[in-house]
Write a structure and sequence with these properties.
alpha/beta; eight-stranded parallel barrel; 12 helices; 8 strands; about 45% helix
Length: about 260
């Protein structure tokens, strides 16, 4: 079983640094990201055009690296979670989690018995086509995989302690655009209401032994949010990094 680098780093008190893949489903992207020193990736299945086959390919390519691949699924429905986990994801990010009941449903879909209700489909690509000892594998997978709940609404903030205290939740991840939209201050990341919400998420996740995740689009934003308490950072998305670098070079050449 591939070990989850993010779990290892968090256990050592270090900050995992990741990147979102939402445009470039190419065979080279896994090794490109590895060469950059990234610890984890978020393969986006919510806002991208990726189909399940493309996500499967990406997960297979990331097996050839030490990077921990997670998938952001479109919703907390069982069939979205189970299929990407059986394709080799080491965890799921679920958007817009609003309640403890929803968080529990995610844990149930992702973890094997007795901690959840995930179905058994062993011996395929998930296990590199080698059938493992079921009990040993189930126990190890439950310890290795991660549940990432996105906090993206006022309702989630109201239920934050209940979500965080749900057994099996590993990361509270602030979806900053949607959270500001829910608060009526869309895109105002310097607004006190957003900063106070981010601080509260960081405090609650620390209280329950979880990580606080967020995805800044630039280094200034990253440093500010790290100072507040975020300790799991996904730096931008693939198309954002590519566009910014290309734009900068083109402007310099024209200048």
């Amino acid at each position: 079983m591939k070990q989850n680098r993010v779990r290892q780093l968090l256990a050592e008190g270090k900050m995992p640094i990741g990147h979102m893949i939402m445009e470039f489903s190419t065979r080279g992207i896994a090794k490109i990201v590895e060469a950059a020193g990234v610890d984890f990736v978020l393969v986006d299945g919510e806002h991208s055009g990726f189909d399940l086959g493309q996500i499967d390919d990406l997960l297979a390519w990331f097996k050839a690296t030490p990077i921990a691949p997670f998938v952001r699924v479109p919703s907390s429905d069982y069939h979205f979670i189970a299929r990407v986990m059986d394709a080799g994801a080491l965890g799921v990010m679920v958007p817009n989690v609003k309640s403890a009941e929803q968080a529990k449903s995610v844990v149930n879909a992702m973890r094997y018995a007795p901690e959840g209700e995930r179905g058994l489909g062993l011996g395929g690509s998930l296990n590199d086509f080698v059938r493992p000892n079921p009990k040993e594998y189930m126990h190890g997978a439950n310890r290795n995989n991660m549940v990432i709940c996105q906090i993206e609404s006022k309702e989630a903030l109201d239920n934050l302690d209940a979500i965080a205290s749900t057994p099996g939740v590993d990361v509270l991840w602030v979806g900053h655009f949607d959270l500001t939209q829910s608060l009526g201050i869309v895109g105002e990341f310097q607004h006190d209401e957003f900063l106070n919400a981010l601080k509260r998420v960081a405090e609650v996740s620390k209280q329950y032994g979880q990580a606080t995740g967020i995805q800044p689009s630039n280094l200034e934003q990253a440093r500010a949010w790290m100072d507040i308490g975020c300790n799991m950072i996904s730096y931008s998305a693939d198309h954002g990094v590519y566009s910014a670098a290309l734009r900068s070079a083109v402007e310099a050449l024209r200048g």
